[in-house]
Amino acid sequence: MATIRDVAKQAGVAPITVSRVVNNSGYVSEKTRARVETAIADLGYVPNVLARSLRSRRTDTLALILSDISNPFWTTVARGVEDAASDAGFNVILCNTDESEIEQDKYLHVLLQKQVDGVLLVPARSALEPIQFVQSQDTPVVVLDRLIPDAQADTVRCDSEGGAYQLTRLLLSLGHRRIAVLSGPQGVSTAEDRVAGYRRALTEAGLDVDPALVYYGQFSLESGYTMTQRVLAVTPRPSGLFAGNNFIAIGALRALRDAELQVPEDLALVGFDDLPADLVVDPFLTVAAQPAYEMGRRATELLLARLSGAAPEAYQEVMLPTEIIVRQSSGQAVG
């Protein structure tokens, strides 16, 4: 493996000159720089980033810990993070927890041992301990998507409660009075906020909230399928379904198809999170769309501001709006 001294010898310069070229620091003439860069390419020299980080106490690396990277929503968030990080000269390490606190804690320990400069975290549950653990290592953390009560950290999330409220009001305006909500795990703020928005809309409409129509599960296809099967066994059957995220909605569609029921003719269906346009030939589902890319980018910009000392002293909570997109799946109530 080539060393900095090998490069210096081939280029006919001192090792400090190679260091200046690699680190883009200090004056080097264009002619000398070109000679050093040619030697680097010819020898296949790879700078020792670890040694450099030990001197500077910076690794130029951020960690992004997500709940489910298979979901296009989180893929889009990750793209926003990577673009903002790349623009600032940072790399991103991506980790996936599948909403597991055990996986989350394992990743946090490994990442902090690797001395990442900052952490972008989608917490597996609404607990303070993971945030406090990161901060105890003098590492800044920004929380994405979820509200952690009493957390002293920057947060970027969308208005889940408001979006759920608007979706439920839409179904009510179409004549639906028995509406089931299929949400994510209890103990996760987004799941509980979406149920809260649903409850608020029903209460304002003078309707009782039927506990038999409120379901908590996982933000997954399988859970959406199972919860929809349970809804279909309820008498009288609801005329509308509100799915807590895009995967739950897809699972619900599959369950309705297997039960030989049509959307929206037999049941109306609305959901949280849109699918990327390039993945859907004919967009069908009425949704509360969250600005996923902006969430990732804004969170990264907040984290970078903390690292540079440019952030305000007080922690920031950025609340992004949802957009209601009405499509064919939210039909008028029948009868």
How would you summarize this macromolecular structure in one to three sentences?
The chain has 335 residues and is α/β, with parallel strands linked by helices.
Explain this structure to me?
- This protein is of the alpha/beta class and 335 residues long.
- The chain has 3 domains: 4-47, lambda repressor-like DNA-binding domains (434 Repressor (Amino-terminal Domain), Orthogonal Bundle); 57-155 and 291-317, Rossmann fold; 160-290, Rossmann fold (3-Layer(aba) Sandwich).
- The protein contains 12 helices and 12 strands.
- It has helices spanning 4-11, 15-23, 30-43, 49-56, 72-87, 101-113, 129-136, 160-173, 189-204, 221-232, 246-258, 292-308; strands at residues 61-66, 91-96, 118-121, 141-144, 154-158, 179-183, 214-216, 240-243, 268-272, 286-289, 317-320, 323-325.
- The strands form 2 sheets. The chain has a 6-stranded parallel sheet, with helices on both faces.
- The longest helix is centred in the last third of the chain and has 17 residues, at 292-308.
- The N and C termini lie far apart (77 Å).
- The model has no long low-confidence stretch (mean pLDDT 91).
